[in-house]
Design brief:
The chain is an alpha/beta fold and 151 residues long. Helix content is 28%, strand content 23%. It has 5 helices and 8 strands. Strand 3 (54-57), helix 3 (62-68) and strand 4 (77-80) form a beta-alpha-beta unit.
Length: 151
């Protein structure tokens, strides 16, 4: 992942999701939380419109990922929030190739120097439920309280 890239998350409120939430924005990328309760068409629309390059997902959303992945050609990688043994046990039937969150993290020793970047850099992206048409996004900028709306 590179600074400025968008990383979607399809996850329940757990420690791995919290790690993604702070880790993604803390490295200068944009954390994009996706509401898994939306209809499949809206989830695919949001992933594409947000231009997510990676999507981290709880394994409970494996079926959803398999359905939307073919509709999201710009996603470089689907990251299952688990380790290799869980993935090989619980996600063996997935058609979508997935990366293991824990395997990706294991490459690093935890000694991380937080980068310094402009406080107006994008940090979080959230979308509405789309009750009046396609969902609309709000892009949050760094540590400031300002928000830009994406239409």
């Amino acid at each position: 992942m590179q600074r400025g890239e968008r990383v979607g998350t399809l996850a329940w409120n757990g420690y791995r999701h919290l790690e993604c939430y702070y880790g993604v924005s803390g490295m200068g990328a944009v954390c994009h939380t996706i509401n898994p309760r939306l209809c499949l068409g809206q989830v695919a629309f949001i992933v594409n419109y947000a231009d997510d390059e990676y999507v981290a997902f709880d394994m409970t959303f494996a079926t959803l990922v398999d359905i939307i992945a073919p509709q999201c050609p710009n996603v470089k990688g689907w990251i299952a929030l688990g380790d290799e043994s869980c993935i090989s046990t619980h996600l063996a039937d997935m058609a979508t190739p997935v990366l293991s969150y824990e395997t990706l993290l294991a490459k690093y020793d935890g000694d991380y120097t937080w980068p310094v970047f402009d406080e107006r850099s994008a940090s979080f992206l959230c979308y509405t439920s789309g009750t009046t048409g396609n969902p609309k996004g709000a892009l949050y900028l760094g540590s400031s309280s300002r928000c830009n709306t994406i239409i």
